[in-house]
Amino acid sequence: MAPRLISVWQPFFLQAESPAAAVAAAVQLEDLGYSRIWFSAGFGQDVPSRFREILDGTERIGVAPGIVSIWHSSPAAVAAFAQDAQRAHPGRFLLGLGASHAVLVEGNGTDYRKPYSKMVAYLDALDAAGLGAEQRILAALGPRMLDLSRDRSVGAHPYFTPAEHTAEARAALGPDRLLVPEVAVVVEADPVAARATARQYTAGYLSLPNYTNNLRRFGWTDEDFADGGSDRLVDALIPWGTPEQVAAGLDKHFQAGADEVAIQVLNGGDATTFPGEEFRALAAVLI
């Protein structure tokens, strides 16, 4: 059996007060044995230099955008950044690409139409620039994007999905593609406090149709989406409890076919503070 890889998905790395703070946190995760660091590339025109700063400041840990928006960054610039990172740190940088969300794209003055076709054209442009399928992974929720992930990348990086989606994604990808769901967690044993922290996170994502439409395919309804999510939905999406209880929730994704799970520790919406204590406690039971 292939090893179960535990990685980190954390907005802190883009929003840290300084590159030095981000690198120091990355070194901690590398020392604890986490396999990769994921964080958003934001919505600027270029891939943030923070990805390269973390690569330069660490020795082994992988780094990946989760994700670069295909509506905001040009294929030529993205390919150049990825190729440079790979030359400097072979095998450690994986380009994560995604179609983002209408509210974010149209807020930037772009018409959000045919995101699947946009992704196909973007991948064509990356191919032409020499950045092939083996160097990229796609954020994928629905069947068409999962199939595209299988055919034109190393695999899929779903976000905000229950374990049932992981099983569907594995079936679509087949046995040989990489499957890395992001899974947010709360290290808190009190159910009221844990769910309150979780809802600070779920409320925003449940306002985005890409996510709610995906969840509907698994039987969730408007009643589950109200007020930050029903207890049942919150519990399905966000493992919470002691480190051991969180590990049991993450195991559902591995049982469903994940190769790697990217843990996002929720700490009340404070993206400028690194939850190092929680990652250390989780590493003790997961790695």
From TrEMBL:
<dbReference type="GO" id="GO:0005829">
    <property type="term" value="C:cytosol"/>
</dbReference>
<feature type="domain" description="Luciferase-like">
    <location>
        <begin position="17"/>
        <end position="128"/>
    </location>
</feature>
<dbReference type="GO" id="GO:0016705">
    <property type="term" value="F:oxidoreductase activity, acting on paired donors, with incorporation or reduction of molecular oxygen"/>
</dbReference>
<dbReference type="InterPro" id="IPR050766">
    <property type="entry name" value="Bact_Lucif_Oxidored"/>
</dbReference>
<dbReference type="InterPro" id="IPR036661">
    <property type="entry name" value="Luciferase-like_sf"/>
</dbReference>
<dbReference type="Pfam" id="PF00296">
    <property type="entry name" value="Bac_luciferase"/>
</dbReference>
<dbReference type="InterPro" id="IPR019922">
    <property type="entry name" value="Lucif-like_OxRdatse_MSMEG_4141"/>
</dbReference>
<protein>
    <submittedName>
        <fullName>LLM class F420-dependent oxidoreductase</fullName>
    </submittedName>
</protein>
<dbReference type="InterPro" id="IPR011251">
    <property type="entry name" value="Luciferase-like_dom"/>
</dbReference>
